[in-house]
Amino acid sequence: MKKVWSSVVTTVCVCCIFATGAFAASKADVLYTDAQRLEKVAQYTEAADSYKKALPLYEKDGNGVKAARCRAGFRRIHKIKIDYPYTEEQAKEAIRKQFPKVPTERIVAWLKGSNVERLVIDGTPHYFYSIDRNFAFRNYDVGRSCEPIHRKYTTYYKIIRALIERNAREVLPEGAVFPYKNPAVYRGKWSITVRHSELPRNGILKIWMPLPILVGPQSDVRDISISPAAYVKLPARTDADIGLVYLEVPLEELEDDLAITASFSFTHYEQRFVIDPNNIGSYDKNDDLYRTYTASRGNTTITEAIRKQAKTIVGNEKNPYRAARKIYDFVVSRVYYSIMPHYSLNARNYPESVYVHRQGYGDCGAQSSYFCALCRAVGIPARSTGGYQMVETTGIGSGHFWAQFYLPNYGWIPVDTSIAQLPDYLPELSDTESAQYKDYFFANLDPYRLVIQKDIDLPLTPPATEPIMLPMAIQNAEALCDTMLEHPGALVSENWKYEIRPIEEGSRRE
């Protein structure tokens, strides 16, 4: 769907007559109140128009707070419409185009199902932009016959199978623990290129770009270079919970297209934990780590329904390691992999863990949030970690999240529920091969990863003054600009390019 961008230039006006300012504020308040009412009943087009009309009136009156609220309201609706562009007929056509052999009757029946990504906008049902891919993911026979899915998953399976076989040949000393091994070294490059005509003529474009951090299996973060360096206002800290470099672009000084690049290198190790379930240690429930990572918050919200589900899964199991394995098996076997309407969920304040629990599906970030919520509900510290995942043969990478749970004597233990579901789309694998593959992603993790943030929903540095595009995960650049109406984060994201390539294989860490 083609996105149309526009900008609103802030106008400073000193009113000579008080009544003129009062009238403008009054009219703006009526428009703003009407916009809120319309938004609540999903009349999004009219609501967006009212926010848009109220904004310059508040700016003219010098009411920056309410002007910001108008921008936020317009941008919430913008995010919802990005996620749900299709009418029912367009959604049906998108699926039919990808899977022409599937009977139309089956597609129509599926679209009318209760757990399809459908949202009523302006009185008409609209469907998610990735409805065709999710049709394949949630119908295994279709997914298994989809050549691109099969080719991609077969490639990844072979890479992981090689790690499994190598680990099986390695004999470890009794009681040995070698969590980090088999390092891979990478070089990454980000770029943002935006045409000058798509940007406002004045104002400050604030940009947060993600970068690697130092954490557990990831080390040697170096060769960080940002260009133009003059835009950098706060350099990245590799020892932070989230890796970010903050830039400001004075738009009135910009004469050509905006072009920003960032480059870096890092080393990432395979994780292989050899855990004795009878020697995992005890939690200090007064410790900050325990309280932080067993709390209900943000997209890792724990409802009573989630708490009840966690207790049902775990049963009488008191051992955190074994309990986490039960939760892992539940998510891998019971939650369909599906692309998620992240922007819309954020705009509607709908926690991802709650969405997954109610709908029964989710992508990597959503599944990780749900896994963590279930763990936290039974007193196991857990967090969703992520950035990028690189399949060696492609050399490019893609955004990805996975989960970790904490054991006192071992630290953070990785799990990847969504990658573990890959064998479900490869019917040629034996039951043994499928089980071995799924076992690998509990307490082990491949080295083809880039960590940007230790957990989801982490605040930006410096803090954002208005809502960003997707606070949950910073996998590409985020942006704010108070002289733009549409969300600048969407514009920057649309013009974001990335590349992460292996540059050498390191030696084994002793």
Task: Please tell me about this protein's structure.
- With 510 residues, the protein is of the alpha+beta class.
- It has four domains: 18-83, Methane Monooxygenase Hydroxylase, Chain G, domain 1, CATH 1.20.58; 88-139, no CATH class; 180-267 and 458-505, no CATH class; 276-442, Roll (C8orf32 fold).
- Helix content is 37%, strand content 22%.
- It contains 16 helices and 17 strands.
- The strands form five sheets. Strands 3, 5, 8, 14 and 17 form a five-stranded antiparallel beta sheet that branches. A four-stranded antiparallel beta sheet has the order 6-7-4-16.
- Helix 11 (320-334) packs antiparallel against helix 14 (364-377) and helix 13 (352-359) crosses helix 14 (364-377).
- The relative contact order is 0.15.
Strand content: 15-25%
The helical percent reads 25-40%
Please give the CATH class of the largest domain: Alpha Beta
Structural class computed from helices and strand pairing: alpha+beta
- At CATH level 2, the architecture of the largest domain is Roll
Number of strands: 17
Rg, rounded, reads: 24 Å
Distance between the termini: 51 Å
Form type: globular
Count up the domains: 4
Main pleated sheet: 5 strands, antiparallel
Poorly predicted ranges (pLDDT <50, ≥5 residues)? Answer: 1-21, 506-510
What is the count of helical runs? 16
Helix-strand layout with pairing:
Elements: H1 18-40, H2 44-60, H3 64-83, H4 88-98, H5 104-111, E1 118-121, E2 124-127, H6 131-137, H7 140-145, H8 147-169, E3 180-194, E4 204-210, E5 218-227, E6 232-234, E7 244-250, E8 258-272, H9 288-292, H10 304-314, H11 320-334, E9 336-337, H12 342-347, H13 352-359, E10 361-362, H14 364-377, E11 382-389, E12 398-407, E13 411-415, H15 431-440, E14 444-445, E15 449-453, E16 478-480, H16 488-494, E17 496-505
Parallel strand pairs: 9-10
Antiparallel strand pairs: 1-2, 3-8, 3-17, 4-7, 4-16, 5-8, 6-7, 8-14, 11-12, 11-15, 12-13
Helix pairs in contact: 1-2, 2-3, 4-5, 4-6, 10-14, 11-14, 13-14
